[in-house]
Design goal:
InterPro entries: CAT-like_dom_sf (IPR023213), Condensation_dom (IPR001242). The chain contains 16 helices and 21 strands. It is of the alpha+beta class.
C-alpha cells in the first residue's frame, strides 16, 4: 500500500448541494443499489510506475474537494472538506481492472467517517497494468468520472502538468450558489415543472398485456458498429449530439409501439449546462421529466426536437429532492398510480467531438451486431434504455422490469428495430412512413378489458386483482365505468372507510405495471347475490362512498 498525500487550497464545511442531497436520500432509501457505488478504470501507458500513478491521483485529490470530503447524509446534510491528509493507494499484484474494482467494492463506504473514495493499481513485472477509482455516488456522477479520466490522461502523459493549478468550482461553492434567491426561484420553477409532468405523464409508458408467465427482470445488451457509423452521418446532417439521435430513435420506437403521439418519461439531467461546470467533479445529475412530441414527424425534425427537449428538461433538472418526494407522494396518491422514478432513458455519453462520417457503403460491411441477455435484480421500472457508448460501436442496454410482460425476445427485437432505424436514417432524412417502415414493428395489441384512464393504459383484470389482494378477504368488484366515472370499486366486508380502502390499494400497487387504483369506492353493507352484476351491487345498502383521496394522502406509503 502507498499513502496518497494531498493538500488543497482550503478546508471547510457546508450544506449538501441539491445533487448531493438527491444522492444522499437515495443512499438512505436504497443503500445497496448497484449504482450507489461507481467505478472507473484509467488508461495507463506501458512502463507506468506506481509512483507515476500516485502522483496523478494526488493531484486529483488536491484539485477536487469532493474527492477529499466526508458527508453526513440526511436533511439538510453536511459536506466537510479536508484541507490535507492521506488516502491509501491499494497495490495488488496481477489482477486486471475488473478484479481491482471488485476488491475495492468488497467493503461498504461510511461517508461520514472518511472520504468514500478508493484508489487501486495492479502491478505486473514491476509496472502498472491497471489503475481504478471506486467511489460513492455522492462524490461523483458519470460525467464527473469523465472529467477525472481526461485529467488523469493529461497528467500521466506529462509530468510537468502534475500541479493542482488554479482553484476550480467546487461542491462547497455550488451549495453557496444554490442558497441565493435567484437560484432558489429556479429550483422552485423546477418543482412546478415536475408537478405538471407528473400529473400528465403515463405511469408506465410501455404498459401492455402479459405475454408469458413469471415477472422477473433482465436486460438485453447490444453492441452495433453499424449503428455507431450511422450516428456519425445523422449527427453531421442535423448538427446535434449522437445521444440526442439515439433518444429520437427510442422515442420513435416508443410512440410506434404504444400508439402515443407524445412521449413523456423520467430521464436524468446531467445539469452541466453552465460553462464553469464542465470541469466540475461532484454529483449533479437528477431525475427530470422529458416530453417529446413525436406525432407524424420526420426523423431529422424529431432529432432536433429531442435535442431541444433535453435542453428544456435540463432547465428543470435541479431541485430539492425532499420537497419533490413530498409532491410526488401527494400527486401519485391523488391519481392512484405508482410510477417508477428510475430513468426510462439514461445516457452516460459525453459527446464533445465533431462527427466524422465514413462512406455509407461501409455501414453494410460493419461487423455483425452482438446481443446478449442477462437476468437482473427486480425493479419497478417496466422498460429502461441505458446508452453506454457511441464511439466505435453503439453500446446500449434495454431492461425489462417484468419479463412476463416484456420478455427477452421482445426486448431484443426492440433493440434491433432501433438499430434498423438509425441505419436507415444514415442515408438521409426519413418521413414518418419511412420511420415506421424501418422499425418494422407493429403497435402493441391490447385485448378487450384494456382501458385508457387518465393517460394511462390499464387492464381491468389487473385492477380487479389489485383490489382483491389489497382488500382481502372483502368481496370486491371493479367496474370499468359507472355513471361516467372510471374504475369504480364496490366492496363488502372490507375497510370501514373509503380512505382506508384507497390507502391499502396504493400500498399494494407498486410493481403492477398494468393497474391503477379505483377512482371511486362504494362500501356496501353486504355482498349481492351476483357480485358480477352492477345492478345487484346497486340494490344492496351503501355504507359510504367516495374517492378516498383527501384523508388518504397523509397516510400514503413513502
Amino acid at each position: 500500500m502507498v499513502r496518497l498525500r494531498f493538500e488543497g487550497h482550503r478546508s471547510g464545511a457546508g450544506p449538501l448541494t441539491a445533487g448531493q442531497r438527491n444522492i444522499a436520500k437515495w443512499l438512505l432509501d436504497v443503500p445497496h443499489a448497484p449504482a450507489a457505488v461507481l467505478d472507473h478504470a484509467f488508461a495507463v501507458p506501458p512502463g507506468t510506475t506506481v509512483r507515476d500513478v500516485a502522483d496523478c491521483f494526488e493531484v486529483l485529490l488536491c484539485r477536487h474537494e469532493g474527492l477529499r470530503s466526508t458527508y453526513q447524509l440526511g436533511d439538510p446534510g453536511v459536506q466537510h472538506v479536508l484541507a490535507s491528509g492521506t488516502l491509501p493507494l491499494r497495490v495488488h499484484s496481477g489482477p486486471d481492472a475488473a478484479r481491482l474494482v471488485a476488491l475495492c467494492r468488497a467493503e461498504p463506504f461510511d461517508p461520514a467517517a472518511a472520504p468514500p473514495v478508493r484508489f487501486a493499481v495492479a502491478v505486473s513485472d514491476g509496472h502498472v497494468s491497471a489503475a481504478v477509482v471506486v467511489c460513492s455516488h455522492i462524490v461523483a456522477d458519470f460525467q464527473a468520472l469523465a472529467v477525472l479520466d481526461a485529467e488523469f490522461a493529461e497528467l500521466i502523459r506529462d509530468p510537468a502538468a502534475r500541479v493542482p493549478g488554479e482553484p476550480r468550482p467546487q461542491p462547497l461553492d455550488r451549495a453557496v450558489l444554490e442558497a441565493r434567491p435567484a437560484r432558489r426561484r429556479r429550483m422552485e420553477t423546477a418543482l412546478r415543472h415536475w408537478e405538471r409532468a407528473l400529473r400528465e405523464a403515463p405511469a408506465h409508458p410501455y404498459a401492455g398485456p402479459r405475454t408469458g408467465p413469471g415477472g422477473g427482470s433482465g436486460a438485453c445488451g447490444i453492441s452495433s458498429t453499424a449503428a455507431a457509423m450511422a450516428l456519425e452521418h445523422v449527427a453531421a446532417r442535423t448538427g446535434t449530439s449522437r445521444p440526442a439521435i439515439v433518444l429520437a430513435a427510442f422515442c420513435a420506437l416508443l410512440s410506434r409501439r404504444t400508439g402515443d403521439a407524445t412521449c413523456s418519461f423520467v430521464t436524468l439531467s446531467a445539469n452541466r449546462f453552465e460553462s464553469d461546470l464542465l470541469r466540475y467533479v461532484g454529483t449533479l445529475a437528477q431525475s427530470t421529466f422529458l416530453t417529446v412530441e413525436v406525432g407524424d414527424s420526420g426523423f431529422d425534425a424529431l432529432v432536433r426536437r429531442c435535442f431541444g427537449a433535453v435542453l428544456q428538461a435540463g432547465l428543470h433538472g435541479a431541485y430539492d429532492v425532499y420537497r419533490q418526494h413530498e409532491h410526488s407522494i401527494r400527486i401519485t396518491a391523488d391519481r392512484g398510480v405508482a410510477p417508477s422514478f428510475e430513468p426510462v432513458f439514461n445516457s452516460v455519453v459525453m459527446d464533445t467531438r465533431a462527427p466524422a462520417p465514413r462512406p455509407l457503403r461501409e455501414i453494410g460491411r460493419a461487423a455483425a451486431t452482438e446481443t446478449q441477455w442477462v437476468d437482473l435484480p427486480a425493479t419497478d421500472v417496466l422498460l429502461r434504455f441505458d446508452l453506454g457508448s457511441v464511439d466505435g460501436a453503439l453500446v446500449a442496454r434495454l431492461r425489462s422490469g417484468d419479463t412476463g410482460r416484456v420478455g427477452p425476445a421482445e426486448v431484443t427485437a426492440l433493440l434491433l428495430a432501433l438499430e434498423r432505424l438509425l441505419v436507415a436514417a444514415a442515408a438521409g432524412d426519413l418521413d414518418h412512413a419511412g420511420i415506421v417502415a424501418a422499425l418494422a414493428l407493429p403497435p402493441i395489441e391490447r385485448p378487450a378489458g384494456w382501458l385508457r384512464v387518465d393517460r394511462c393504459w390499464v387492464d381491468l383484470a389487473e385492477v380487479q386483482r389489485l383490489v382483491d389482494d389489497a382488500l382481502a378477504p372483502a368481496a370486491c368488484r371493479v367496474f370499468a365505468s359507472v355513471d361516467g366515472a372510471p374504475l369504480v370499486a364496490y366492496v363488502a366486508g372490507g375497510p370501514g372507510t373509503v380512505e382506508e380502502a384507497h390507502r391499502r390499494c396504493l400500498a399494494a400497487l407498486p410493481g403492477r405495471h398494468a393497474a391503477m387504483t379505483p377512482g371511486r369506492y362504494v362500501l356496501c353493507g353486504q355482498s349481492p347475490v351476483d357480485p358480477c352484476s352492477l345492478a345487484d351491487w346497486r340494490a344492496v345498502p351503501v355504507l359510504c362512498e367516495g374517492t378516498g383521496r383527501a384523508a388518504a394522502l397523509a397516510l400514503s406509503p413513502t
